User: Fold these one by one.
Assistant:
Number 1:
Amino acid sequence: MAAAVRLALVGDYRPSAVAHQAIPLAIPLALSQLNITASWDWLPTTSIHNADDLTSYDGIWLVPGSPYQHDRGAFTAIRWAREQQVPFLGSCGGFQYALVEYARNVMGWHDAGHAETDQTGRLVITPLACSLVEKTGDVQLVPGSRIADAYGSLQTHEGYHCNFGVNPDFIRELEAFPLRISAHDMAGDVRAIELPDHRFFVATLFQSERAALRQEISPLVLAWIKAAAARD
């Protein structure tokens, strides 16, 4: 019998967070469609000191909940997943931090920051023009993207809980690197990114896991677990 897939949920668990209520439902729902077994651990960001704390996991999900208690732990998880081809899913805060990590360590913007926690440098993540706390909206998916393939559609309707997003001043420079902006809202604002040359690296500003609260499968959670199960 194949060994169970091991999944790391990186983030600081809060029972009151809607996404944190949804995630323990989203994973079993996805597994119901797969002929595999999986276990998962919540890893507080304070528990991640270096990559050794992550080597036993087949997939990493940086869950919502920024600002994280230990930014270094969150960034360590992202970098490990990106550099080691570990299937990665980021949602909400996970999306925001994935972009900052990419700007710092791939684009060479060592002063890249997040306006929620940083006051100086190139703020890749800045306040949204309109809050998306407990809001929903239509999202357009880019044809041929991994996220569109997961959904089997070019449009979805998703829920949010965030006040920060991509700084539009940096979008053109982000797109000049091998990073793909793979979803936008109806106004054209960035809602998801992915790395085309990665086994699975997808991050969304929206929280697809909320589908589980309606007893529906999140296509992204399903695709992430499938990628984790397929690791060599």
Number 2:
Amino acid sequence: MFGLNLPLSRNYILPPIVLSVIAILLMALDLRDVLEFHRQLISEGEFWRILSSQYIHTNWTHLGLNLIGILFIWILHAEHTSTSRYFTHIILLGIWTGVGIWLFCPDIKVYTGLSGLLHGIIVWGALKDIQTKEPTGVLLFLGIAGKLAWEQYAGPSAEVGNLINSRVAIESHLIGAIGGIVLAIPLFKEKFGLAKN
């Protein structure tokens, strides 16, 4: 998994590159005012912001942190997915996270960033590891669960908040992770013979 045995096949490398380029272009074009999650504007009918906000960032540092997340997930779990599954996941988890913030986090008035949906993708990958009996799957899942529990207990990191020029929306991490679990349900239906042929 680590070392020189990286998932360099076009099928594995193209999806994270496309996601990264989209996020970089949206940042470079300075489309935050048009695309960010803005509760008041969404309530006035700008519903696209629920999804589009997931792919834009407050500043280049914020984007850089999420690009590192994309790279980390690619190294760990690229071989678990296909191009169509990757893009299905980032769209479904983007919608899930945006709708979750809208419904359950009324105090969040403005939101941007990939981190919520990235938490969903890495949770799905950890559960796929468990399904395929990868020895690191349980450790990764427990590590993410511990991180989420600590965030909910300790609150958002002020240091990271200063770097990204925004409060860290730890609620989005939890919402995204729950979305990853929901996406993984078919894996375990299959594992336990519950899926229909």
